[in-house]
Design brief:
With 90 residues, the chain is mostly helical. It has one domain. It contains four helices and no strands. The model has no long low-confidence stretch (mean pLDDT 82).
Length: 90
Amino acid sequence: MAASSVCPRCNQHSESLMHCLRDCDFANQVWSLLTGNSLNHTFFSHYSRQWLISNFSIPENWEDNHWPLYFGIALSCSWRSRNELIFSEI
């Protein structure tokens, strides 16, 4: 995705799409803030396709039926933030 395979945010792990959007410490903080730390371990364990499908659906135990919208916006903002970081270094 960039000149280096190391994540530009955490500088610790190889960057993949899932690392960028979910597994990086930066992304973890975003998800925790957005959900008030109410995520369970399955949120961070699904493979990419299942993760996207399950989060673009309204979870049964989620009180707010706007979660798919919040999820999509958070993904978009996280990806944009990552790209701004990468392209500002050029």
